Amino acid sequence: MIKETLEYLIDIFPEWKAEIFRVWSDSNYSSQFVLDPKWEEPAVWGIALADIVRNIAVAHIEKHGGNFEAVTESISQVLIAELSNPMAPVLRVE
């Protein structure tokens, strides 16, 4: 599946650039998302989310310190747990 997803990405990039994802969060950790699902292949979001996790880890380490592997593992564990048992409903902002 990863090979097919990467082949899909190679086919569509660099033909377009667009904002596909925006997120806001408040002091109660409530999040609002705006998505533009341009990709026909849903697995591409897995690659995008992995990139986001790595960038969050780097930013976290720059501000709070830590080890890249430990920070990404912590984020990944909670991400998987949240996908399995969400704490909040999906809300769309348009």
What does the model show?
The chain contains three helices and two strands. The protein has 94 residues and is mostly helical. It has one domain (2-84). It has a two-stranded antiparallel ribbon. It is globular.
Which terms summarize this structure?
DUF5076; DUF5076 domain-containing protein; 52% helix; mainly alpha; two-stranded antiparallel ribbon; globular
Furnish the topology, listing elements before pairings.
Layout lengths: L1 H11 L8 E5 L5 E5 L8 H21 L3 H17 L10
Helix pairs in contact: 2-3
Write a compact overview of the structure shown.
InterPro entries: DUF5076 (IPR031796). The protein contains 3 helices and 2 strands.
The string of secondary-structure elements, in order, is HEEHH
- Give me the secondary-structure category: mainly alpha
Report how far the terminal alpha carbons are from each other: 31 Å
What is the count of structural domains?
1
Radius of gyration: 15 Å
Shape field: globular
Number of helices: 3
Let me know the average pLDDT: 81
What spatial order of strands do you see in the largest sheet?
1-2
Sheet with the most strands, sense and barrel status: 2 strands, antiparallel
- How many strand elements? 2
Determine the fraction of residues in helical runs and give it as a percent range: 40-55%
Organism: Pseudoalteromonas luteoviolacea DSM 6061
Pfam families: DUF5076
Protein name: DUF5076 domain-containing protein
